[in-house]
Specification:
Elements: H1 3-9, H2 14-22, E1 29-31, E2 34-36, H3 39-53, H4 58-70, H5 75-121, E3 127-128, E4 145-152, E5 155-162, E6 168-172, E7 175-177, H6 193-199, H7 202-220, E8 228-232, H8 238-243, E9 252-257, H9 260-272, E10 278-283, E11 296-302, H10 311-318, E12 323-338, H11 344-348, H12 355-364, E13 368-377, E14 393-403
Parallel strand pairs: 7-10, 8-9, 8-11, 9-10, 11-12
Antiparallel strand pairs: 1-2, 3-5, 4-5, 5-6, 6-7, 12-14, 13-14
Length: about 400
């Protein structure tokens, strides 16, 4: 038989047959420049496949095949040799089963510990009453009054914020849900965080992680007692989860995203940490925040390509009125150094995707660059980062900015 015929007969690939030949498991003769598989070689292949199905490694199989092919001893001796090999394999498998059973038992213990820890350590986080003074009606700028139906230890879990003009801002399970919030539906933005990590290339995830760690380390060096922090476009909370433990007890964190499902996600993640801080979970379009003017001390945002095109409009221009005179900003951008001509969306927004654009923007707002970080070029980012193509040259550009006086 030819190589293709024998591969087809035993439902394996030609490459697998060639590999067995290359490592000396199969030794077919050549006829007319092609391998010819006779009965002897076919028997060897059958033995290889049988032994593989019983968990033998290729090195172990090679030892058995060599003995079979080279020995001149009688059949009983060959059987005795194989019997010893099989008995040894059975013993090692039994030892491995015992070891795996120990691992399974240990993992089950850890699962029970996590379940117990979750049961007793989870800290429910509702809308803190202290945050009420920061809110106002986004339509008429009047004061909002609280109408609460579930109030526990100074936190609102069900209720609404009401304005005399008729505006209503519901609080659902501790989350403020504005009318400008959206449902993810079946759009690409509906991403399970686990799937995102598993299906996004490791190199890209690592660079995003390093950028987040750089920002959070700078954040941790400062003392923000009594400050109000607004995290814009929280998403899955990559930055927020890194700084959460370092927050001072009397600061107030506002997690904002237009998609309520993402706010649900980060709320559960922070509750599961077992650490209790004052947090407002706000599902709202950042262009229409129901917050008073001059109330935010610190802004943070770690943008990915999904939200990159909105940074000028939302992060700076629309939030300007909510910012105090002295502010600090922690932000990470994706910067395009070179754009693939076939990437029409990126080409369309070329000017607003450059480092020069961001530097000029922040300078025009009177912001001073205190520290900066530039990542390596990002590898292909996968299907979830829709703005970036394989031939683009993109890197993470992270900044720590301050402003002392309003310009």
């Amino acid at each position: 038989m030819k190589i293709g015929q024998i591969a087809s007969k035993y439902n394996i690939t030609i490459d697998a047959v060639r590999h067995y030949i290359n490592i000396g498991l199969l030794t077919p003769l050549k006829k007319g420049g092609q391998f010819d598989f006779d009965i002897r070689t076919e028997d060897d292949l059958k033995m290889i496949l049988e032994l593989k199905s019983h968990g033998f490694s290729l090195m172990e199989i090679k030892k058995i095949i060599l003995y079979k092919n080279m020995t001149t001893l009688i059949y009983d001796n060959e059987d005795s040799f194989k019997k010893n090999i099989y008995m040894d394999k059975v013993q090692r498998l039994q030892e491995e089963i015992g070891h795996l059973s120990e691992i399974v038992g240990s993992l089950n213990d850890k699962i029970r510990d996590i379940n117990e820890s979750t049961k007793y350590n989870r800290q429910a986080i509702g809308f803190p009453l202290e945050a009420l003074s920061l809110f106002q009606c986004p339509k008429c700028s009047s004061k909002l009054e609280l109408n609460s139906s579930v109030l526990i230890k100074g936190q609102v879990f069900q209720g609404e914020l009401l304005c005399e003009c008729g505006y209503q801002l519901p609080i659902q399970e501790g989350i403020v849900v504005a009318e400008s919030s959206r449902e993810l539906g079946e759009s690409l933005y509906k991403i399970d965080f686990t799937n995102y990590v598993e299906e996004t290339p490791v190199g890209y995830v690592n660079e995003l992680h390093k950028a987040s760690i750089w920002l959070s380390d700078i954040f941790a060096e400062n003392n923000y007692q009594g400050k109000v922090i607004l995290d814009v476009g929280t998403g899955h909370g990559i930055f927020v989860r890194n700084i959460y433990q370092a927050l001072s007890e009397d600061c107030l964190l506002i997690c904002n995203d237009v998609y309520k499902e993402k706010i649900d996600f980060i709320k559960e993640a922070l509750e599961m940490s077992g650490i209790k801080h004052k947090v407002v979970f706000l599902a709202c379009d950042a262009r229409f925040l129901p917050l008073k003017d001059n109330c935010i001390d610190i802004i943070s945002a770690l943008t990915t390509s999904i939200h990159l095109l909105k940074v000028d409009e939302i992060l700076i221009t629309c939030l300007e009125r909510h910012l105090k005179q002295c502010i600090e900003i922690y932000i990470g951008h994706m910067v395009f150094e070179a754009i693939d001509p076939t990437n029409s969306l990126a080409c369309q927004h070329r000017e607003s995707l450059s480092k020069a654009f961001f530097d000029t923007l922040y300078e025009s707002k009177g912001l001073t660059k205190i520290n900066q970080y530039r990542s390596s070029y990002l590898p292909f980012c996968g299907k979830y980062e829709t703005l970036i193509s394989k031939k683009d040259k993109v890197y993470m550009y992270c900044l720590y900015l301050t402003r002392s006086l309003r310009v």
